[in-house]
UniProtKB/TrEMBL annotation:
Residues 25-250 form the Phosphoenolpyruvate carboxykinase GTP-utilising N-terminal domain. Gene3D superfamilies: 3.90.228.20, Phosphoenolpyruvate Carboxykinase, domain 1 (3.40.449.10), Phosphoenolpyruvate Carboxykinase, domain 2 (2.170.8.10). Its cofactor is Mn(2+). Pfam families: PEPCK_GTP, PEPCK_N. It is found in: Cytoplasm. This is Phosphoenolpyruvate carboxykinase [GTP]. NCBIfam families: PRK04210.1 (NF003253). Substrate binds at R84, Y229, G230, G231, S280, N395, S396, R397.
Length: 615
């Protein structure tokens, strides 16, 4: 228990805007939630300092050693608030069918009534922060505005890392409004659900056992209650940029996807742009910042989690990253696996949650070099390398500005984005799925995406290591009927020139040998997979046709200088017909969930696979 948070000095109840819609909403929320004060977030450095100082004072944050991690902070959550809560996440469309069959649903009015009950007085004793933000560029043709209201200073400073926000966003909204444009902005309401009675001391990580993460797709509104964790609370990220944006994308003919974006330059100077969808904690951040092991190849980063993709005037698919920071999985990150992420966070200005705190005021996690002799683990207990418990939660995270990334591609600042040459789907599978193979065409690629499977991870509450279908790595993020989502993907292929669309590939870094070890070394060596993909696109690399798609032909895949036997590579690339035959009933069962909403071409694709497998 620590002292009640002091009011930051810039807190001022005089609203710094005349925008009627925003003012009315802020007033309505304040009326309902009864905050002690209202703070309109400016996004200034002074404000960051005030807020982080206050968070240190309340015990939420510990300031890290400025010589090691300048302007950086450590925090530990309540152990009941460590990941996304998929079973508490709802798509409250007017019609239940529009949420089905993969989302939780409740009628919007019913949900609102229930949540108004939870929100009533929920900000008592707290500051209500009003955060004007934009996902993507402020200079975009149609800027994607939002306003998040939160009663968490932790969420406010995390939002400042992850999204473009503050006074200039508010000014732009007002400008466009004054110019008579119908400016759309997504109202996003968040509360940790932990009001403070008069004189009651705050806790380091306020939250509530009851949690709701709710999207209203028709209204384009977000209501979140009870959690301070990333994807549940930084509402610009999964709630807006994926769940709500996927609905906008359906209506407007574009794609909002759970994908990294990278730029790859060959030794000959040929540039390709790659987007890749892997489920949560399955390797997007690591691939996005990959340091190639093969000579002469270069990777630059554009995004590590979300891609918004639109068909450009040239008929190609152009992608932008709507985010402004990385919210990355800490465990496993080190100088070998992800040196660029290490360099990014070591520049400072970063927030660390649920990792271990060392005695010299640094952070540590499993997989990082040089374990400290002693540390405080994420639960606040003394920890040594001999301890039985993990020092860090498996879903512990760093939150760091993307602008600090030393390999950020210059195109990151271009509101038009980059034209995508290849889309990769991938998951975490011990068996069955080869290291890499190529789809036969866009529709087959959509089939591969729609049937993507992966073992569950610690990024969401629930069992870990269970194989589930995670279509396009979007299972927890599709904001509408998933059958319609598949149709939308199919239509993108139908309505556009196939020759100009990206080629689709499927990868699996996680296949195991009989002893349980990874068959493929992964990380920087994944550049070899990217090389094969680029050479396929340019018609240079040979492939063999198999029942599932095109797999590297012998000799076409570069393992020069890699300590890997041809037999191991063959095992990593193998298409085992028996394993695939076992996959078919699972795909059938998955497709049956969708009833008539499944585009029939996906059944046709499955029939084709069965025929090729001899079923
Ligand atoms: P979210 O932020 O949850 O969306 O996750 P992500 O897809 O960005 O995953 P990330 O890159 O953070 O990787 C998650 C875990 O997978 C980390 O512990 C990595 O060390 C591990 N990982 C990433 N790439 C590879 C790889 O090529 N091989 C192996 N074996 N592990 C990997
Ligand atoms: C994920 O779970 O896919 C993440 C982390 O990227 S969160 O922002 O919490 O969703
Ligand atoms: Mn993610």
């Amino acid at each position: 228990m620590t002292a009640t948070a002091p009011a930051p000095e810039s807190t001022d109840s005089t609203p710094p805007t005349t925008h009627a819609g925003i003012l009315a909403w802020v007033e309505e929320v304040a009326e309902l939630t009864q905050p002690a004060r209202i703070h309109w977030v400016t996004g200034s450095d002074e404000e960051w300092t005030e807020l982080t100082d206050a968070l240190v004072e309340t015990g939420t944050f510990t300031r890290l050693n400025p010589e090691l991690k300048p302007n950086s902070f450590y925090g530990a959550s309540d152990p009941i608030d460590v990941a996304r809560v998929e079973d508490r996440t709802y798509i409250c469309s007017v019609d239940e069918r529009d949420a089905g069959p993969t989302n939780n649903w409740m009628a919007p009015d019913e949900m609102k009534q229930l949540m108004r009950g939870l929100y009533a007085g929920c900000m008592r004793g707290r500051t209500m922060y009003v955060i004007p933000f934009v996902m993507g560029h402020l200079e975009a043709e149609q800027p994607m505005f939002g306003v998040e209201i939160t009663d968490s200073a932790y969420v406010t400073v995390s939002m400042r890392v992850m999204a473009r926000l503050g006074t200039n966003v508010l000014r732009r909204i007002e400008e466009l409004d004054a110019a008579g444009q119908d400016v759309k902005w997504v109202p996003a309401l968040h509360s940790v659900g932990h009001p403070l009675a008069e004189g009651e001391a705050d806790v380091a990580w306020p939250c509530n056992e009851t949690k709701y993460i709710v999207q209203f797709p028709e209204e384009r509104a977000i209501w979140s209650f009870g959690s301070g964790y990333g994807g549940n609370a930084l509402l610009g990220k999964k709630c807006y940029a994926l769940r709500i944006a996927s609905v906008m994308a359906r209506d407007e003919g574009w794609l909002a996807e759970h994908m990294l974006i990278l730029k790859l330059t060959s030794p000959q100077g040929v540039v390709k742009y790659v987007a890749a969808a892997f489920p949560s904690a399955c390797g997007k951040t690591n691939l996005a910042m990959l340091k190639p092991t093969i000579p002469g190849w270069k990777v630059e980063t554009l995004g590590d989690d979300i891609a918004w993709m639109r068909i450009g005037p040239d008929g190609r698919l152009w992608a932008v990253n709507p985010e402004y920071g990385f919210f990355g999985v800490a465990p496993g990150t080190n100088e070998h696996t992800n040196p660029h992420a290490m360099a990014t966070i070591n520049k400072g200005n970063s927030l660390f949650t649920n990792v271990a705190l060392t005695e010299d005021g640094d952070v540590w996690w499993e997989g990082l070099e040089n374990p400290p002799a002693r540390a405080t683990d994420w639960k606040g207990n003394p920890w040594t390398p001999e301890s039985d418990e993990l020092s860090s939660h498996p879903n512990s995270r760093y939150c760091t500005p993307i602008k600090q990334c030393d390999i950020l591609a210059a195109e990151y600042d271009d509101p038009r984005g980059v034209p995508i040459d290849a889309i990769l789907f991938g998951g975490r599978r011990k068996t069955t799925i080869p290291l890499v193979f190529e789809a036969r065409d866009w529709t087959h690629g959509t089939f591969l995406g729609a049937t993507l499977s992966s073992e569950t991870t610690a990024a969401a509450i629930g069992a870990v290591g269970v194989v589930r279908r995670d279509p396009m790595a979007m299972l927890p993020f599709i904001g509408y009927n998933a059958g319609d989502y598949f149709s939308h993907w199919i239509n993108i292929g139908k309505d556009n020139d196939a020759a100009k669309l990206p080629k689709i590939f499927y990868v699996n870094w996680f296949r195991r040998d009989d002893e349980g070890g990874f068959l493929w070394p992964g990380f920087g060596e994944n550049s070899r997979v990217l090389k094969w993909i680029v050479e396929r696109i340019d018609g240079q690399a040979a492939a063999v046709e198999t029942p599932i798609g095109h797999v590297p032909a012998e000799g076409s895949f570069d393992i020069d200088g890699l300590d890997l036997t041809p037999e191991t590579l063959a095992a990593a690339l193998a298409v085992d017909v028996e394993e695939w035959k076992a996959e078919v009933p699972q795909i059938t069962e998955w497709f049956e969930k969708f009833g008539d909403d499944l585009p029939s071409v996906l059944w046709t694709e499955l029939d084709g696979l069965k025929a090729r497998l001899g079923l």
